[in-house]
């Protein structure tokens, strides 16, 4: 997530919009991958192994829904904000992107093992 945050800062910002879409897309992709890596570890601890191959949001949604319905809302919205709007669409709206980052941090904090 730190790499994603640093990359997002490189995008520059004017009013509520980021300037360089390339950095926004890269940052969102990195943040989304951080969420998926965290979910992989969480699901493994819960006894659910990810199938081999590409990461598929439907797998994560189904697996998380069996464990924590509230967490599923966060995962779905992080997917929408970071992966769809930020990475694929290249949205430069800082409110959408920052909300996605906030959701990513909430997910990671909710599922990290207690110290």
Short description:
Helix content is 72%, strand content 3%. The chain is mainly α and 115 residues long.
Which blocks of ≥5 consecutive residues have pLDDT under 50?
A: none
| CATH class designation | Mainly Alpha
Helix content: over 70%
- The number of helical elements comes to 5
- Rg value: 14 Å
- Class from helix and strand fractions: mainly alpha
Beta strands, count: 2
CATH architecture: Up-down Bundle
| Main β-sheet, spatial strand arrangement | 1-2
CATH level 4 superfamily:
Nucleotidyltransferases  domain 2
Number of domains: 1
Look up the CATH topology: Four Helix Bundle (Hemerythrin (Met), subunit A)
H-E order: HEEHHHH
The 3D shape can be described as: elongated
The proportion of residues in beta strands is under 5%
Largest sheet: 2 strands, antiparallel
Spatial separation of the terminal alpha carbons: 20 Å
What are the SSEs and their pairings?
Elements: H1 2-10, E1 13-14, E2 17-18, H2 21-45, H3 57-67, H4 69-88, H5 94-111
Antiparallel strand pairs: 1-2
Helix pairs in contact: 1-2, 2-4, 2-5, 3-4, 4-5
Describe this structure in words.
α2 (21-45) runs antiparallel to α4 (69-88) and α2 (21-45) runs parallel beside α5. The chain has one domain (2-111): Nucleotidyltransferases  domain 2 (Four Helix Bundle (Hemerythrin (Met), subunit A), Up-down Bundle), CATH 1.20.120.330. It is elongated, with a radius of gyration of 14 Å. Strands 1-2 form a two-stranded antiparallel ribbon. The protein has helices at 2-10, 21-45, 57-67, 69-88, 94-111, and strands spanning 13-14, 17-18. It is mostly helical. It is built from five helices and two strands, in the order αββαααα. A hairpin with a 2-residue loop joins β1 (13-14) and β2 (17-18).
């Amino acid at each position: 997530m730190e790499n994603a945050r640093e990359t997002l800062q490189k995008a520059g910002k004017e009013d509520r919009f980021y300037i360089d879409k390339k950095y926004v897309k890269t940052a969102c992709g990195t943040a989304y991958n951080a969420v998926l890596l965290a979910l992989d570890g969480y699901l493994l601890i819960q006894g659910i192994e990810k199938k081999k191959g590409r990461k598929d949001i439907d797998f994560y949604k189904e697996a998380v829904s069996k464990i924590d319905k509230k967490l599923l809302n966060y995962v779905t919205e992080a997917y929408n904000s970071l992966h769809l709007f930020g990475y694929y669409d290249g949205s430069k709206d800082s409110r959408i992107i920052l909300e996605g980052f906030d959701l990513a941090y909430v997910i990671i904090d909710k599922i990290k093992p207690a110290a």
